[in-house]
Amino acid sequence: MITRRKLLKTGAATGLAMATPGLFAPAIAQGAKIRIGYVSPQSGPLAGFAESDAYNIESFLATSVGQNFEVIVKDSQSDPNRAAAVAKELIVDDEINLMIVASTPETTNPVATTCEAEGMPCISTKAPWQPWFIGQQGNPGDPASWQPFDFAFHYFWGLEDVIAVFLNMWNQIETNKQVGGLFPNDGDGNAWGDPNVGVGPGFAAQGYTLNDPGRYQNLNDDFSAQINAFKAANCDIVTGVVIPPDFTTFRNQALQQGYNPKIITVAKAILFPQSVEALGEAGHNLSSEVWWSAQHPFKSSVTGQSAGDLAADFTAKTGRPWTQPIGFVHSLFEVASNVMGRVDDPTDGEAVAAAIAATDVDTIVGKVAWNGAGVPDFAKTNVTKTPLVGGQWRRKEDGTFDLVIVDNKTAPEIPAASAMEALA
Amino acid sequence: MIWLDTVVQGVLLGGLYALFAAGLSLVFGIMRLVNLAHGDLIVASAFLILIVVETLGLNPFLAALVAAPALFALGWALQRFVLNRVLGKDILPPLLVTFGLSVALQNGMLELFSADSQRIAAGPLESASIDLGIVTVGTMPLLTFASAVLVIFLLNRLFYSTALGRAFRATSDDAVTASLMGINPKSVFAIATGLAMVIVTIAALYLGMRANFDPSVGPARLIYAFEAVIIGGLGSLWGTLIGGAIIGVAQTVGAQLNPEWQILAGHLAFLVVLILRPRGLFPRAVD
Q1: How do beta strands A98-102 and A366-368 pair?
Q2: Interface residue B103 vs chain A (CB under 8 A)
Q3: Residue A169: which of A391, A411, A400, A403 has the closest Cα?
Q4: B134 touches chain A (CB under 8 A)
Q5: Are B138 and A244 a contacting pair at CB < 8 A?
Q6: What is the pLDDT of residue A16?
Q7: What is the pLDDT of residues B17-59, one digit of tens each?
Q8: CATH code at position B32
Q9: Domains of chain A, CATH where assigned
Q10: CB 3.0-4.6 Å disulfide test: which of A326, A398, A411, B204 passes with B46?
Q11: Long-range Cβ contact pairs of A226-232 (< 8 A, separation 24 or more)
Q12: How far apart are CA B204 and CA B50, in angstroms?
């Protein structure tokens, strides 16, 4: 009689066990779909970043490449703890083959850390690489202790790119080079406002002085302290990384108090056209970094669409204006399908991770290849960068806004449509 | 000069907090109900005002006038059909119900209105200011403060000069005895919540004109509103206004020293008042 024990014993002896993976491999090739887990903040304060997710996933699954995939989506509810919990669910219960994750360090970091611990390959984007890489280290304060990751990979830009873009824009206009900084007490604000590794030293290298009154709490109702400090330092420029409600409060209070800087360049607050429209005339000529636009000269490797086609298709299907995240969510599926096309066994995490590291694909957001270009040595295995340029919101007659690229020195392949203009 | 400006801005900010707190104070004072959904109700009202502004093309102030009766009815129904059923000796059930309501409201609004940052447009009023010689004050914060004073003045008149106000006070002091005198506490509660929703409408109007709102911003300011109510003393409406002003001034003065101390300074002021006067500055009811 063959018992389980006997079978295992003889199986091991005859090499049956060794051959077992080989038995399963054809089954996958014959039809079982490759399972991709996707975590994004679909509800809560960060939900704007995930607005296009449903559209992106649906259009990816409709392509011929997409037929081979199953995408399991989980909502992080904009909560880092929840993000880690659903990542674990995807890995353990849904038995995914690859994790993709996007939108702010609050989502990408817990998911990437969970994947690294579980040996699940993970591709992440839409968070500056410093908060992503350094934020996941055991001791962010000690560069000597930083370790590269085996399974977690990230593509986006870094603080050095934002500094370069902001300076290029500011250099187009005559100012006294005094800069006021609005940095809240959150992950982004602390990273940007750090006196040693934040944006301050980068500005100083080109003669700009950063006046930073200190960290404030998000959803602040009063900015008179900051306005008084900026007035006292005679700041011609205001910058920062501010959430939309706070930026509106600041902008209105500054106007009420008669403080009119020549340039306001902020990240986050004016990312989405809806937030800029909410400002009305006070939104005209506000400037920001631009990571993707309908004018970017790139094409999708999956659908062949240009950036303009993708933006137009999104607007046609949903009736809403295009936003920067659309291109990046699309590119996540490009990279994921490209990686899976180069592995023999999607269930082999290490092989998938090796395939991610060897990626070299031209996506709708630019080239994605973990070749270490422009990234410091400690992060070069896990981080690669996509181009970043500067743009200004221009108000049209009907009260809607256009995002116009006004500086492309950092990425000349992306066309600039206009020159930087001072605020009225 | 900067310090004077700081204090003035703080008092004006206190007006906004008092407006957020007045509805809470009314409900808390009369039925000892801590409404955790208060912030979300403010955001929901702001969305309603926005809808009225966009569909009827009205001025935001007129739109609030249109929205107020609907919200009174909503508050009345909420109390009559939901909260009255859970009010009792145990304070936990109503707390849990309003907590659940808060979660449901946030997600319902997310479903209906998406996560977009919205704003009630007020045109040139948004950035207008009045130069008072030594300090410049924004027209909008000044209007907010004036509205808070007016709301509290009118509520006070209602409380101390009308039969309804007498019923409110009697129910607040002793619901059982009040019902022996022919007052139906449940219908008094329903009217009180309806009235609180009218105040919520006014708070929503200023919240929506002042800064962007989205479905998730409701709970953030609830804590300041609670503190204003507690500082002022249970049942005292003028106390709520003063409580709001104390927190506002503490915050702006703290921020002037260092923006990191802004929120902490408000909380510290609250703690100091609690230590010196545990029942608040002007307590009316005796519990």
Answers
A1: unpaired
A2: no
A3: A391
A4: no
A5: no
A6: 44
A7: 999 999 999 998 888 888 999 999 999 999 999 999 999 989 9
A8: 1.10.3470
A9: 33-157+295-385 (3.40.50.2300), 160-290+388-407 (3.40.50.2300)
A10: B204
A11: A226/A180, A226/A182, A226/A250, A226/B255, A226/B259, A227/A253, A227/A254, A227/A257, A227/A259, A228/B2, A228/B5, A228/B6, A228/B256, A229/A180, A230/A180, A230/A259, A230/A261, A231/A257, A231/A259
A12: 10
Residue pLDDT, tens place only, A184-210: 988 788 888 888 888 999 999 999 999
Per-residue 3-state assignment (H helix, E strand, C coil) for B29-75: HHHCCCCCCHHHHHHHHHHHHHHHHHHHCCCHHHHHHHHHHHHHHHH
Q: Answer yes or no: do A275 and B136 touch at CB < 8 A.
A: no
Structural domain includes residue B286: no
Q: Is residue B7 part of a domain?
A: yes
For the segment A222-245, the average pLDDT, to the nearest whole number, is 93
Taking the Cβ of residue B2 and every Cβ of chain A, the question of whether any pair is shorter than 8 Å is answered with: yes
**Which residue in B17, B211, B256 is closest to A248 by CB distance?**
B211
Radius of gyration of chain A (CA): 23
Question: The pTM is what?
Answer: 0.83
CB-based contact, B177 to chain A, within 8 Å: no
In a domain, B121, yes or no: no
B122 located within any domain: no
Chain A contacts of B252, Cβ < 8 Å? Answer: 222, 224-225
Q: Do A258 and B5 touch (CB under 8 A)?
A: no
B116 touches chain A (CB under 8 A): yes
Question: Of A50-59, A404-413, B129-138, B189-198, which gets the smallest average pLDDT?
Answer: B129-138
Write out pLDDT tens, residues B65-85: 999 999 999 999 999 999 999
Q: Report how many domains make up chain B.
A: 1
**In the numeric block, which tokens belong to residue A348?**
């082999």
| B 210-249 → A contacts, CB under 8 A | 210-214, 216-217, 220-221, 248
Of A47, A246, A282, the CB nearest to B115: A47
The residue that leads in pLDDT, A230 or A16, is A230
A220 near B CB under 8 A: yes
Question: Residue A256: which of B129, B211, B255 has the nearest Cβ?
Answer: B129
Per the listing, tokens 């500056």 go with A128
Across the interface, whether the CB atoms of A258 and B136 are under 8 A apart is answered yes
Q: Which residues pair with A181 in a beta bridge?
A: A239
Is the CB of B262 less than 8 angstroms away from the CB of A222?
A: yes
Range of the domain at B42: 2-114+127-276
